[in-house]
Design brief:
By secondary structure, this protein is α/β, with parallel strands linked by helices. It has 8 helices and 10 strands. The longest helix has 19 residues, at 278-296.
Length: 321
Amino acid sequence: MSRRRTPLLLTATLLAAGLAGCSSPAPTTRDVAPPEPPKASTPAPRVPAGTAPAEAFAVGVRQLKLNRGGDRPLPVTLWYPARGGAGGTAKRDATAATGRFPVVAFSHGLGGRPADYQALLTRWAAAGFVVAAPTFPHTGTGTDGNLLDVLNQPADVSYVLDRVLALDAEAGDPLRGRLATDRVAAAGHSAGGVTTIGLFTTGRDERLDAGVVFAGTGLGVGTAFAGAAAPQLFVHGQADKVVDYAAGKAVYDAVPWPKAMLSLPKGDHGRALLGDGAALRVVSDTTVEFLRWALYGDEAARKRLPAEAARGALATLDDHL
């Protein structure tokens, strides 16, 4: 066997072991490399001080049909702040609210789709963020489930960001002049968490100002965080039997930038993200405050984080922001 092929097969084996259960129970993942030592300095985030919107927005939703390279279809669901009264379900093709809103790219888990996470993502949109969520060509619902293709997904997300951010200057587009193109984050769950970590390590996208990783692991993408400081929030259930809590904690420990980890003692691999309930409220409120701080520079939101995380005694927050 050639030396060149051996690392590829090893990567495929590790991904299969760590990600096969993103959509259903699987053996615990424990083959995690020790975290790399953090860098000596911890630079401050680059987003200047500001204030996030105080009011909630109505939410609009639309679809983009994208394709990277002609053979990687990437349909994207966009949720965004819209005009009208807050509350209720997202309205298709609603008129965007007035203002410029930061962009968050969200990556689904294995066998998932953006709509699975709409309870969480519409809350982000209502708080003043444009959420761009692609369906990946080999790990989405109804695809071939090629685990190794997760390694191609950071580049997919960067391509989606290219196209979505360009809408801000596209004549006639409903989001023209509505995107804060200099304030961008990436987030993802499970295999999407791996994708998100990869955007700050092997596939570093320098446009990203922050990351949110739900039940993620560094398998295949490593923990060599690079580039400008980008605060990270990790969310992980301590009863996760798909991606072991220790695997997510190992990546968190390796982050050299401002960071926090929301741990749910009774949390599993992610049901709290998929339906309304007390756990989702804690997760959504904590992540909203983190994004308000990281992308709007809202220091008041930063100060509210510990209280949001502690609500209902459902989670604990390790805070190094």
